[in-house]
Amino acid sequence: MKYLIDSADIKAIEHISEFYPIAGVTTNPSLVAKEKTEFLPLIKRIREIIGEDADLHIQATAKTAEGIVNDARLLKNAVGGSFFVKIPINEEGLKAASILKTEGIGVTMTAIFTSQQALIAARAGADFVAPYVNRLDNINADGVGTVAEIVSLFEMYDIDCKVLAASFKNVKQIADVALSGAQTATIAPELFKLAITHPMTDNAIDGFDRDWRSVYGDNDIGSLLF
Ligand code: E4P
């Protein structure tokens, strides 16, 4: 499973991109609005940070198929590189996805809550579908189970559409979608640190440091090799 950053916070994207193996960034209108800043410089800066080869998923805000297609063309032109327009699933969104498919513009169908939505989105030409794991868990549904169903359906019918699992509130959900076979997951910046943190790891690192210092003091390896 590849990891993307689910954020429009420039500082957070800079930090996560510097330290973690990132395949791209996803945003949505709520995440962008939270930044309270000019839209075009924001998305251009995100592209600059992650580079042309990383996937950038930005959501259209138009409501009609024609409007969504227009948003997608303009967004792709603005950010270049590997770009996917996020489109919430509904009739207009499906129509837009089919049109964009013929133009070679990448599509991520988002706000997916059922496997049938995902299958229909894939048939319409979506490159990714984004099921919302935590929002399903919040209503006593099964977020990870839904992701697993979608993965199975795509395998069963040999469909070339990837799962971009989204909406996480804890590392257990991320670990479970990885095991379910989701190809990608988009994660809020604060969850990256949690995903790599373990008290036994800290303990092991402290032990190595203590043992080394007991013999070599403050000398690091670099200072002992010449
Ligand atoms: C990604 O496509 C979604 O917009 C996002 O992950 C939703 O996350 P939330 O449920 O934390 O808002």
Overview of this protein structure:
It is a single chain. This protein is an alpha/beta fold and 226 residues long. It has two domains: 2-195, TIM Barrel; 198-226, no CATH class. Helix content is 56%, strand content 17%. It contains twelve helices and eight strands. It has helices spanning 10-19, 29-35, 39-50, 65-79, 91-103, 115-123, 133-138, 143-156, 171-180, 189-196, 199-216, 221-224; strands at residues 2-6, 24-26, 55-59, 83-88, 106-112, 128-131, 162-165, 184-187. The protein has an eight-stranded parallel beta barrel with strand order 1-2-3-4-5-6-7-8, surrounded by seven helices. Helix 6 runs parallel beside helix 8 (143-156) and helix 8 runs parallel beside helix 9 (171-180). The protein is globular. The mean pLDDT is 98. Bound molecules: erythose-4-phosphate. Erythose-4-phosphate binds at residues 6, 26, 28, 110, 130, 132, 134-135, 166-167, 186.
Topology at a glance:
Layout: E1 2-6, H1 10-19, E2 24-26, H2 29-35, H3 39-50, E3 55-59, H4 65-79, E4 83-88, H5 91-103, E5 106-112, H6 115-123, E6 128-131, H7 133-138, H8 143-156, E7 162-165, H9 171-180, E8 184-187, H10 189-196, H11 199-216, H12 221-224
Parallel strand pairs: 1-2, 1-8, 2-3, 3-4, 4-5, 5-6, 6-7, 7-8
Helix pairs in contact: 1-3, 4-5, 6-8, 8-9
This protein binds erythose-4-phosphate.
Erythose-4-phosphate (E4P) is lined by residues 6, 26, 28, 110, 130, 132, 134-135, 166-167, 186.
